[in-house]
Write a structure and sequence with these properties.
Chain lengths: ~800, ~230
Amino acid sequence: MFKNYIKIAFRNLFLNKMYSFINLLGLTVGLACSLLIFLYVYDEVSFDKIHTNYENIHRLDSKYQINDSFKANLDFPAGLAPLIKEEVAELVNAVRYERKNKVVISNGTDRVYEQHLSYTDPSFFEMFNFDLEQGNEESALVAPYSLVISKEISEKYFSGQNPIGKTLTIDEKDYQITGLLAAIPHNTHFKFSMLASFETLNEDIKPWSAFPNYRTYIELNSGSSLADAQSKILDVLQRNMGENGQKYTSVESYPIADIYLKVENFVYDELRGNIEYVRIFLAIGLLILGIACINFMNLTTARASLRSKEIGIRKSSGAFKKQIVYQFLSESILITLISAILAIVLMELMLPGFNLITGKELALNLFESPQILAGILGVSVLTGVFAGLYPALFLSGFKPVSVLKGQFKTSKSAIFFRKGLVVTQFVITIGLIVSSLIMNNQLQYLQDRGLGIDSEALVSIPTKNDIGTNYASFKTELLKNPDIANVTTGSLLLGGISFETYSDDDGVELKPKSNILQVYNTDHDFVSTLGLEVFAGRDFDIENVNDFSNSILVNETAIREFGWENHTDAIGQEILLNEKSYSIVGVVQDFHAFSPSSGILPTAIKVTDKGVDQVLIRLQTRDLGKTIASLKETWTTFEPFLPFEVNFMDDELNEYFKGEQNLRTLFGAFAFLTIFIACLGLFGLATFTAEQRKKEIGIRKVLGASVERIIALVSKDFLYLVLIGFVLATPVTWYFMNEWIQNYPYRIDIGVTVFAIAGISALAITMITVSFHSIKSALSNPVDSLKND
Amino acid sequence: MIQAKNLKKLYATEEVETTALNNVNVEIKEGEFVAIMGPSGCGKSTLLNIMGLLDNPTEGEYNFLGHEVSSYSERERAQLRKGNIGFVFQSFNLIDELTVFENVELPLLYLGMNADERKEKAEAALERMSMMHRRNHFPQQLSGGQQQRVAIARAVVANAKLILADEPTGNLDSDHGNEVMKLLEELNEAGTTIIMVTHSPHDADFATRVIHLFDGHVVTENMKEGFHV
């Protein structure tokens, strides 16, 4: 029986080449896009599930969950992990993990910055599935100053040699290499290329310091209560930290598999995904598949009359309705399976570009990863069932008596349903065009806005604090260069040590009252270097000794937060920080000290001579190369042991937006492909309608209809559907995009333009698609169609 | 084999109601060859469809092989149709995408027969209709007469007790028409009950009994000489 179904399916496929082509192409592109998206989503949700016992591994946190996301406060004392591993029966393992922001590696006389060095306990390798290719996992991280490195680092510093036993000088200290890491899986939130023993840090730290700073991962005994473990850990903290322990009001934790996608934090040393994007892409993947399925449904049911005789014969030969349903379902599954094979080929072609945009390393190793193959098969079969079910039920419902007599008439409800499906496609298409326009506009707006300051010709040089003592003379030396307009300190975009955040969450009472205050520690020239406008009062004055220790500037948001009506009201007011009082001398414009996508917080600026991690320089030059060379020269004189690195703020901003930019490019590309698939379906439907109305058109022409009238006649039906689609899509899309855009504190007005553009585009695309047939029918010789009938 | 009592069939559209059959009483015994005649629209095909379990009457009783089927669902009717009734249509109604052999084999597939058995029976039926040499052709490659022979082969392949023929020669020239009628006659002589709708007095002559319908009523029943119900 099944053979018979397959046979007839294949013969139909070859018999109606054009429709088969449309169905196959639509399903192939649809499947390729959606499978690619599902592959991406699968990869996103697979993070940290590589660890055998991942369900029992948690990272400690001392904050609560806020709505859907967590806010991380990951700072725990170094003494905690070893003690709870012993004392808390629920735990199998506890591991500390600390990353150094930027280290300097001495390679001969060269000094090179290296990111991604972390310190951890020997049992790190027990808890997590990271393997050593060389070295002993149990002992590699036991001794102080022992180090395991990635293959990339090994290749970079010990090209071609076995690194084991060799020495690497990091921040002027010698580390002995005890292990070589096997390839590190990409789907983990950890980002390291070197791991040093935690014991190395123990020389400098107090186990129960009042300023704890270490992330702690725990692994539960399977079956043990997480809540019990948490309360015991809290108890250990409070017992051992004395008074300082009281600030831990609770100990929370989140499963390691949630960290990548669901935990919101400002820790920049780990990979972070975006659950929002995962959801959006999942939705797009389903919509694309849906559109491809609708094409199939519409073409199959529209052309049902051509199969009606066959169904009548089968039924009169003894077939049950169920058997006819199975037959058409197996036909649609067969077609989707053929499409799936073609889609795999298409995916292989799309993958390099897709990977480039997403920054992923997705691969279709079908035979090595049976779950991907099973996934593709599963999605294809489901698609086949979904696309084929309605046509199968529709076709199997034919009455043999009528269809065998050629009395085939599609019911009004079936036609209504088909039109409903076309409208659905237009709703999706118009919705995607609008969404993609709004997303682009919003991103463009954020990019144009930048940090709210003039970022052109603003460069930053990272330092390692050593320049602190020499900063003043370094600055004086730089300012001798006429190409340098101004110099200050502080890190924008990246966070860093020049920030202090005072929050009532921390139990710090701010005066005047405010939930949060960010304090920027910098020098006198911060405002002038950044080009911030002073709205009231004055900028810092280097001649004024008071400014160094007692004066403070605040931004506009702080004024609002503190409840002062006018800028001038703030001048002369006092701010109490850590029991020290500062007098407000000026109000400056708002600027993004951190992420341009997030809101501007109440911010204060004060002068300090401590903690310089970035030097900010405003250039005024036409010869950039010369200026940079001169900068380097000055740098080397002051910091012979530190690498020279210069970052342009504009580049940093572009880099910052790159992720979002890429994902939006992808969204646009998928929106375009969705439109393409919808057009294919429309084209097929228009072809069929034109064929069906051939005789009618012939008669109308004989009776004197003009070519224009005929074009209008054929196009009209489709244009109505576009209009209905537009009317339905507008409020739905507006609602969802309005929700989405609320995520951004600074946002565009959605406006009507995007809807107008999308509506007109949909109309134009439909006209172009349909007009091929309407013009062809209108220009054909009426006798031909009448004679053929 | 068939007893129909007070059969009534109404077709209703939004505006009009048409009575296709009105109080039709018919009894057909096994082995009969019955021709149903009458002008277009008199209800011949409607009656044939009800007898062939392709449709239900609006009112009345219809007993087929001892089953009262007038209120059967499509599923139950399909079950009873299987293997018991074969159809021959004016327009042959062969599936264009299947070969001659595959068309003939179709009813056996739905009877769940295995491949060997199907092959044997389908080939025997084709042999009987002298169509074996065309077994791998597609319907469009055959003449009308040949297509109808294939359709008859399909109707008899499952050893149906009843063959319903709806104007079996309507699309054929007289030579091919005669050929088809002779085949039906042979089948009847071999014991198959045949009910045939026709316009042609010539074809009706092959039957043992002729039922005349007019406006949904049975007007006359003529028994051929030498035959009796």
